[in-house]
Amino acid sequence: MACCLTPSTTFREDFTGAVGCKVTIGVKGPPSAGVQLLQIRYAKVTLTSNPPEFNIVAGANFLTVLIEASKPGVLVQLVETCGAGPEQVLDRFFFDPMNPARGYIVKGT
Amino acid sequence: MHRYIHFALSACLPGALFAQMTPIDAYMNTETIRQTAQSPAPRIDRDVQNTLPLANSQRFAAYVAASTPAIDQAALRQAIEDLRLNKLVGNTVSGGGTTSLVSRVAVPGLLGIATEFGGVLQSTTGMTTTLRGNLLGITRMAFGNEQFPFCTEADQSSCPKGSQWLRRFSGAISFETTSTAAGGGTAATSSGSRVPVTALFGTDYRMSSWGLRFDLTRNDPDDPAYAPRWGAAIAALKTAPESAGLLAAVESLFSDASGRPSPVYGDWTAAAGPLLKNAPSEEEYKRILAEQLDLLIVRMAAANVNFAARVAALRRGFLNYAAVRDDILRAIQSNKVSFEYTNQHPANQFSTSNFRFIYSHTPSRSQTLVTANAAMTFYNALPVGGKGRFRDFQLAGQLDRRLGEIANLGNAVATFGAYYQWMAEDALIKFGPGNTAPGSAITLPGTAATLLGTKGHIGIVQGKLTIPAGSVVKIPLSVTWSNRTELINQKDIRGQVGLTIDLDSIFKR
User: What pLDDT is stored for residue B481 in this prediction?
Assistant: First the structure.
């Protein structure tokens, strides 16, 4: 299964993807930092499946994630799991306890 | 007034403790944004996106509030408006005037405004209501958020020193209804009035105690045992309503009327992104980012009349979330030492000051919590009939051990506790001159009564088993033995069966 999300070439949204494509999301971090994805929402719906999955819908929609780590400043990766293929790193950032919730705009085309 | 007090504080304490950050410095005070600003142009698009408000919404909300005072004023106005409505409801309900409605409403009203700023929390035990305030939150209310930035338990090292110290102090003030205080042993004057009370909130409340606490220890994220403990505890946040509330608030701030991403924000990112990508230096990045954030605030405020309310909602959402997270982090400290001072005003007894050291330890591989207390109590003034101000010495220890899980119900907890108190002198009960003894018509000659034979040693031991009945209801079964009590010199052994209901668990669903 190929990856669904493509980094946007404009700054207007973060990612684009084909409508209907199934996206599987995960987070990674250093083993000692206990990085956890606490909550995730896409298109106004809280994702409860494990791992979190959603189908891309038409137009621009929010993808919001709430991430925690035991140490401030550890490097966190938000990844898309693409079937048997390699994971795609969607985002890389240093964990910020003053800003645990991050938002992205995904445009379905 | 605030400025005057602040001047006094600044004069007394090192300036570095109160170093003020500009709004843009505070916004950029995270490694992800700093590294992007420092990297050479042209920067990677994804890195630039990570410095924009949607990726940093909680920092953006703080930026808006710091650079646009009207936002906080709007939140405050809303809180005052809510308070006014509360009063209206209260007056309607109690038209008979038998209770002091204004004083009843004043407590939650004050609390409401305070919690807007993360300053005060309320807890109620029986008929006693306790307001607990973190000194950092209260100071932020009084002196401003820029001067004392919010500081979380999770990231103390990056907090300004002033905030780090202030957040380790907390205060509490307890009130009880005077009818409770009057129950049983009330000394009534010949005119029928009750024992004088500190009626801060009207005639039906009295202050029963106030106190200050200082936490001497904090979590060490570099301790290898910390991460596993953290991982197990933080999972509770997955289902906490505060987590869902925070994400909803983030989306709300950047959405249009349909709930989808606002075109105003999209247009802004499309223009601001390339400017930041090609900023020639870190200083230029900072200047352009500040300029663009200010422009975004103007555009979003013009496009949405609820912009200020949504910023306030996001700030509140983050504070609520951070408060839950801080509670969790404090609970998993393996070694915790606190010092507590409590000024007690027990009904019909002389007011006292209690100084207490509290230590708790959670062994890393054990499901056991060990707690120890050592305390001394002094009368605030030499009581009539007393021989000295020193009243008592206390030592207490408790062991809580989590037992196996009962299917579908949760973990039972076994507790063993022991308490020792040495009373320097016989206990004293206070009466007004000319009072009658409680429950009798006997007129007492003085202002205090000495309870004979009550000085000396008091020992109490308790064994308890708490059985869960789901996540909300718990049934504690305990047996307690004491050689005597403070006021009655008799042995006492009693068994107790209780029922505790965790209302927070209900509301979190």
Answer: 87
